[in-house]
């Protein structure tokens, strides 16, 4: 029995054109877009306009807490910082919102110590973080 190319083509159909080129091109474009987004996200979130860190806190009396925290500002933006005092049952008993003054260590921020009132004795203090006009997520 002899087989010829036309008989095989009639029996099994002709070879379909390859889709490998467009698929590889699409995968390359998606990888470039995804990689660019990943680099931008890492840079944007890795260099915030303001960051803060709780250094120490103490309970002054049943209705007062003293807090010391460090603020690092990038540029000349005004930062708004927020702290929360918590009771033994983790209920918020005090809240403090403070705008960082421009003379707090110069344009780069600095160390800030302040007191705020509570409605009952606090057992811990949490620095929620600081925000600016261009950074609405507390850090």
Structural notes for this entry:
There is one protein chain. The chain is of the alpha+beta class and 139 residues long. The protein folds into 2 domains: 5-46; 50-131, Immunoglobulin-like (Sandwich). The chain is 25% helix and 39% strand. The protein has a 3-stranded antiparallel beta sheet, with no helix packed on it. A hairpin with a 5-residue loop joins strand 3 (80-86) and strand 4 (92-99). The model has no long low-confidence stretch (mean pLDDT 84).
Q: Strands of the biggest beta sheet: in what spatial order?
A: 1-2-5
Query: How big is the Rg?
Result: 30 Å
Give the H and E element order: HHEEEEEE
How many angstroms separate the termini?
Answer: 80 Å
The CATH architecture assignment of the largest domain turns out to be: Sandwich
Overall geometry comes to elongated
Largest sheet: 3 strands, antiparallel
Q: What helical percentage do the residues reach?
A: 25-40%
Identify the quaternary structure here: single chain
The count of DSSP E runs of length 2 or more, i.e. the number of strands, is 6
**How many distinct folded domains?**
2
CATH fold annotation of the largest domain: Immunoglobulin-like
Query: What number is the mean pLDDT?
Result: 84
Classify the secondary structure makeup into a structural class. Answer: alpha+beta
CATH class label of the largest domain: Mainly Beta
Pick out the low-confidence regions.
none
Question: What is the percentage of strand-forming residues?
Answer: 35-45%
Tally of helical segments? 2
Protein name: DUF4307 domain-containing protein
Transmembrane segments: 21-43
Pfam family, one: DUF4307
InterPro entries: DUF4307
């Amino acid at each position: 029995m002899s087989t010829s190319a036309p008989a095989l083509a009639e029996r099994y159909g002709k070879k379909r054109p390859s889709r490998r080129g467009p698929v590889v091109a699409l995968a390359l474009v998606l990888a470039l877009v995804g990689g660019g987004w990943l680099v931008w996200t890492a840079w944007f979130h890795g260099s915030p306009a303001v960051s803060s860190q709780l250094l120490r806190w103490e309970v002054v009396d049943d209705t007062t807490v003293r807090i010391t925290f460090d603020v690092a500002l990038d540029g000349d933006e005004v930062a708004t910082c927020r702290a929360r005092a918590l009771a033994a049952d983790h209920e918020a008993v005090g809240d403090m919102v403070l705008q960082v003054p421009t003379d707090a260590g110069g344009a780069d921020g600095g160390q800030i110590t302040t007191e705020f009132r509570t409605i009952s004795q606090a057992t811990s203090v949490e620095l929620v973080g600081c925000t600016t006009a261009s950074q609405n997520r507390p850090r």
